[in-house]
Structure formats: C-alpha cells, structure tokens
C-alpha cells in the first residue's frame, strides 16, 4: 500500500521501520520540525526523521499539518492509508478522510483506557498490572475512534516508564503491520469505543509532577518513581538540594516518625517514613552528582536518622 507515516519520537521509529520492511511504499514521512538542542542550540532531527533518512524516504516537517498548502501536498501523494504514531499535532477531518483506508493510530494503551498524551507513564504511576497497544481508526476526537486490533503487554513489578515504552513500541510496530495487511485484505474488524474512558485522562507529563509528596503512601511514591523514570524523574529536597530518586522498594510497616523523615540508614539503603508504609531508597542522584546506588552515595555523604526530606 501507499503509506504516509506521521510520527515524531522514539516510540514511533519501530513502526516506521516495520512498515518499510514489510514492503509497503512509504510515499511520505511527516514529523515535527527540527528543534535546537544542547549548548550550541544545534538543530537536531526528530528520531522519526533519522529513520526516514536511513531509508531515503521523503520527509515533510510542517509547523501545522492542517495548513491548506500542506493538505494539498498530502493529497498529491495519493496515499492508500495514513499511519499515525505519537505525531504531536491535531489532524483535521479533511486529512482523516483523505486516504482510501483512512488514518490509523498506534496508541500505547488498551483503549478505552488511558486516552491522552502519556498513557505509558500513567499506567505505571497508577499501578496497573497490564498495558498494551491499540490500533485505532482515527476520528476527530482524542483517541476515541473505532478499535481495530489490540495486544496486551503485562507490566512487571519493577517496570519503569522507560522499559514499558520499549515493550509497547515493539509490540505496536508488529501489530500495525498486521492491521495494514488486514485492511488491504478487507478483513479488518472495527469495534466502537464507549463514550467514556474507563480511566482518568492520561494528561501530559511535566517536571512538576515529580515532586514527591511524603504524605502519600510508600506504594504510591514507589510507583511514581518508576513511572517517571527516565523522565522527568521523581525528586525531593535534602538540605536544600534536589535529590532524584531512581529506584526504591516498599516496606509494608510503619514507624512513629513523620512523613518524609529518615528512620533508618544502613550501609546500602535509606529508609523513609511515608503517609503509609516505609520507603527504602536504593538508587538516587544528588543535585550536581551522578546517578548511583545508595551504598555508593552513603560512602561520600553523611546522612543521619531523623533528617527530613521535603
């Protein structure tokens, strides 16, 4: 099939590659404009653009995909289908209705759960036992179109946002190619979604979300730590400095200390009281320092019982 692919971050790269390797004709790759990065503010291509260049595919980077001039460019490519994976722009009804098979979306959740921009992180933060990918026929709503195919991916007890991201990216790439074949053969079955999502909206993640509230339970905090790893990370304050916490374990017991207070320091861990339960910190990073396990941290930093995280 003649495919227009729309995507931007790492999550989308595997899907583009699988489509190419499956033998489809990718007539255009649409991705966000290059952004300046680093101290020199050098313009860097998006991950999807890098894959497109690897396969010598034509790349388009409109500021707004809905602009009339760009809509005409898309029309001139005569796509049979458009595949969208974490593109980052709203797609107009005119574009959605353009291809023979419409636009399909690779969404990183088991719809109708976790509609929105950050379904992967929220699944971990909320302590879900499984996630997955849904290939959806796009409509004008946000993740509300008819579901075509799903794949379930279990969430491990030590799952992070980053590790689940990789699993769902790979699963979504393979599922997308399967759905393209079903569309071409006329075997794709569409299932309408209920109007209401089965979970809260998976709003975009920002750095402020990483601030640990020690009044929350140890379980909630540990899930937050994993969900925001590797970005933007969960953090607290220690003696006025930011302390990122990368890995921790829940101890289902309590002390008489206040939430945020250090109740025990061993050679390889720091135990902190929360609103319910104790949190054992195993890996951390003090402002200006490298990420390290707690044993390494304590060899160079003196921390006493009774100190407080804020």
Radius of gyration: 23 Å
Helix content: 25-40%
> For the record, what is the CATH homologous superfamily label of the largest domain?
Formyl transferase, N-terminal domain
The general outline is elongated
CATH topology of the largest domain: Rossmann fold
Top CATH class of the largest domain: Alpha Beta
Can you tell me the residue ranges where pLDDT is under 50 for at least 5 consecutive residues?
A: none
Taken in chain order, the helices and strands follow as: EHEEEHEHEHEHEEHHEEEEEEH
What does this structure look like?
The protein is an alpha/beta fold and 310 residues long. It is built from eight helices and 15 strands. The strands form three sheets. Strands 5-2-1-6-7-8-9 form a seven-stranded mixed beta sheet. Strands 10, 11, 12, 13, 14 and 15 form a six-stranded antiparallel beta sheet that branches.
List the helices and strands and how they pair.
Blueprint: E1 2-7, H1 10-21, E2 25-30, E3 35-37, E4 42-44, H2 47-54, E5 59-60, H3 68-76, E6 81-85, H4 93-96, E7 103-107, H5 119-125, E8 130-137, E9 147-154, H6 161-184, H7 218-227, E10 234-238, E11 241-251, E12 262-265, E13 270-273, E14 278-286, E15 292-293, H8 294-300
Parallel strand pairs: 1-2, 1-6, 2-5, 6-7
Antiparallel strand pairs: 3-4, 7-8, 8-9, 10-11, 11-14, 12-13, 13-14, 14-15
């Amino acid at each position: 099939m003649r495919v227009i692919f729309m995507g931007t971050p790492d999550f989308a790269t595997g899907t583009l590659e699988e489509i190419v390797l499956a033998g489809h004709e990718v007539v255009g790759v649409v991705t966000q404009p290059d952004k300046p990065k680093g101290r020199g503010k050098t313009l860097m291509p998006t991950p999807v653009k890098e894959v497109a260049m690897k396969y010598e595919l034509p790349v388009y980077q409109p500021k707004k995909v809905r602009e009339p001039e760009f809509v005409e460019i898309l029309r001139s490519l005569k796509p049979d289908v458009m595949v969208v994976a974490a593109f980052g722009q709203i797609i107009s009804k005119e574009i959605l209705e353009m291809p023979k098979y419409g636009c399909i979306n690779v969404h990183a959740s088991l719809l109708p759960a976790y509609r929105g921009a950050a379904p992967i992180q929220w699944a971990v933060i909320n302590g879900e036992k499984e996630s997955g990918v849904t290939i959806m026929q796009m409509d004008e709503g946000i993740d509300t179109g008819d579901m075509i195919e799903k794949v379930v991916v279990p969430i491990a007890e030590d799952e992070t946002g980053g590790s689940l991201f990789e699993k769902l990216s790979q699963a979504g790439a393979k599922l997308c190619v399967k759905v393209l074949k079903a569309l071409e053969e006329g075997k794709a079955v569409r299932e309408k979604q209920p109007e209401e999502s089965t979970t809260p909206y998976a709003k975009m993640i920002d750095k402020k979300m990483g601030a640990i509230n020690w009044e929350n339970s140890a379980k909630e905090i540990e899930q937050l730590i994993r969900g925001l790893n590797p970005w933007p990370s969960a953090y607290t304050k220690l003696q006025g400095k930011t302390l990122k916490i990368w890995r921790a374990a829940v101890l289902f017991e309590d002390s008489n200390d206040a939430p945020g207070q250090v109740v025990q320091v061993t050679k390889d861990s720091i135990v902190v009281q929360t609103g319910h339960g104790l949190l054992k910190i195993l890996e951390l990073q003090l402002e200006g320092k490298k990420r390290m396990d707690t044993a390494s941290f304590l060899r160079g930093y003196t921390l006493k019982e009774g100190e407080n995280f804020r």
